[in-house]
Design goal:
Shape: globular
Pfam families: Retrotran_gag_2
Number of domains: 1
Number of strands: 0
Largest sheet: none
Oligomer: single chain
Protein name: Retrovirus-related Pol polyprotein from transposon TNT 1-94
Order of helices and strands: HHHHH
Radius of gyration: 14 Å
Helix content: 55-70%
Strand content: under 5%
């Protein structure tokens, strides 16, 4: 069975982060890597340690490969997909009402 290839435009820091984020999350879902965005603790415990590490590394590399140079410099010190994702949200989410509501929802949904 052949897997489909999905490409998204690299996020440079100048384009619409909200749209890039939606596309990137969809790409990670297609690849089965979406759990890595929540952190290592949310990856199913039924997976072996090697499988967990593979998911975390693949998600991190997928995000890194989808970033332009400027955005990559901003997150280069982060060591996980979840940390990169949160840093990008912190840096590039605009201050619009919709984004503020989204951030409040994330804050109170622990």
């Amino acid at each position: 069975m052949r897997s489909a290839k999905f490409d998204i435009e690299k996020f440079s820091g100048k384009s619409d982060f909200g749209l890039w984020r939606v596309k990137m999350k969809a790409l990670l879902v297609q690849q089965g890597l979406q759990d890595a965005l929540k952190g290592e603790k949310d990856i199913p415990k039924t997976l072996s340690e090697k499988e967990k590490n593979d998911i975390l590394e693949k998600a991190q590399s997928a995000i890194i490969l989808s970033l332009g140079d400027k955005a990559l410099r901003e997150v280069s010190k982060e060591t996980s997909a979840a940390a990169i994702w949160l840093k990008l949200e912190k840096l590039y989410m605009t201050k619009s009402l919709a984004n503020r509501l989204y951030l409040k929802q994330r804050l109170y949904s622990f």
